[in-house]
Amino acid sequence: MTALDPNSSSDVARDEPVASPAGKELGGGFMLTCQVVLGIGFLLAWQGVSGRLVDNFYISNPIEVGKRLFGWIADGSLFLHMWATVYATLLGFFIGAVIGVVLGVWLGVSPFTSRLLNPYLGALNALPKVALAPLFVLWFGLGIESKVALAAVLVLFLVFLNTFAGVREVDQDLVDSARLMRATRTQVIMKVIVPSALSWMFAGLKISVPYALIGAVLGEMIAANRGLGYLVQFSGSQFDSAGVFAVLIVIALLAVALNFLVELVQDRMQLWRIVGR
Amino acid sequence: MIDLRHISKTFRKQDEYVEAVRNINLTIERKEIVAVIGPSGCGKSTLLNMIAGLYAPTSGTVVYKGTTVRDVNTDVGYMTQKDNLFPWRTMRDNIAFPLELAGVAKNERAEKADKVIKHVGLDGFETRYPHELSGGMRKRACLARMMLYGAETALLDEPFAALDAQLKLAMHSLLLQLAAESGQTVVLVTHDLMEAVTLADRVLVCTRRPATVALEQRIDLKRPRDVLNVRFTNEFKELYDSLWERLRVEYHEERI
B72–A179: do the CB atoms touch at under 8 Å? Predict the structure, then answer.
C-alpha cells in the first residue's frame, strides 16, 4: 500500500491549531477588582440613598436585607423554600426534557403525524404557557406537582422544537447508507438520527434550564405554601421590601448556579460539537 | 446477476418533469466490473440509486439475482461521491458499523475492523474522527466499511472524483485488488474515461439526459491489471480513442 501511495505520510489532515482558551486579557485581575468595587459602591449608594432620598419602605437597604437573609438561614426556613424551588425546577426540567426529546424524535421521523399535528402544535406553542398555571393548580393541587408541571411545559416546547428541527436536519444520505447496511428502523433512529440530532437537543436543553426555574417560581407565586416564588409573593403582600430583595438575591444566585452547572455539562459534551461540522 | 429491464425514471419537481433515465436495458454478470460513463448530470447516479432500491423506477423493473428490487437492496454496498461516514464515530467504529448493526460482539468487531483497516493502510488512525482524516483516507475508510459489510455487489458513484491523480491511482489499485479478492460485482459510475477503461470489463457510454446507453464496449485487457502502466499499452490506447470518439459526440451535442 505504502509503495502505491506516495502521499501516505502527508495524507493526514493537519491538526487544527488548538484554540487558545479565550485569551486571558492582560489585567484580568484589575477587571475583577473593578467589578468588586462597583458592587460595593452600589451597596454603599443603596444604603446611603435609602431613608434619605427614597423612602426605606420602597427600596429597603442592604443591611436589612442581609439581616432578613441571615434570619432565614438561621431558622432554616430559607433552605426549605430553596429546596422546594430547586426540586420543582429539576424535576420539571427532567420531565419536560424527556417528553420533549421523545416527542421531537417521534414527530421528526413520522412526516404524516407531524403534518397532522402541525397547526395544533403551532397554536399550543404560541400560547403563553404561564396561562396554563391555573389549570395545573386545578389538576395537580397546591402542592409541588403543579409547579413541576408548569416548569415541564415550558421546557418541553423548547426541547421539542429543537429536537424536531435537529431530526429534520439529519443527512438523508447517512440514513440511506445505514439502511443499505441492513439497519432496522429502530437502529436508524438510535444510531443515526439521534446522534446526529444530539447537538440540537443539547442546544434546546441548554436554553431551557432558565425556563424551568421561571416555571417553578411562577407556579409558586400563583398558589403555594413554600418555595422562593411563594416567599417573594408573601413578602410582597406583607409590604416587606427587605424580604422581597432578599428572595430576589437568592433566586439570582440560584439562576447563576444553574447556568454554571449547564456550562460544566457542556464542557464535558465537547465531543458533540464535532457533529456540527 | 443484475438485470435492468426497460427502466426509465422521471422526476417531478412541482409541475416540471425531468426525465433522468430512458429505457435502459442492461445485464450485469456476477464478478463483472462495469463502468458507466457519460456527461455529468446525465442520470448515471439515478441508475445506481435504482439498483440500490433507493428510488423505484418510473417504469420497468430492476431484477437482482432473480428477484425484483422493491425496497432497499441490502445486498449491495454503495459508495457515493460524498463519503457517508458518521462524523460522531471514530474511524474504527465507522468501519465496524455494519457489524454493530448485525449484533456482533464488541471485541470481535474491533478485531475484524482492525484487519480491514490494515488492509487499506489506515492503521494508526483507528481512533480518529472523520474530520481528522484526509479525503483519501475517508475514501479508504468507506472502502474498508464496504469490505467488512461483505456486499456481493459494489455500487460506486464517482468515488474518486475529488482525489488527486496519484491518490486516484492508489485507490484504483486497491479497488481492483479488493474486488478480485472478494469476487465482487462492481458497477462504477464515472465521468473519467481513463478510470473507466483502467478498471472495467465493460464500459457503457451514456447519452446526455435522459440517459440511454449509446455504446457498449468490452475491455479485454488482461487481469490482474497494473493500473499505473496499463494506460501506456496499445490496446488501451485504441479502446480509449474509440470510446472518446463516441463520448465526444455527447459532449459536443451538449454544448450546442
Answer: yes
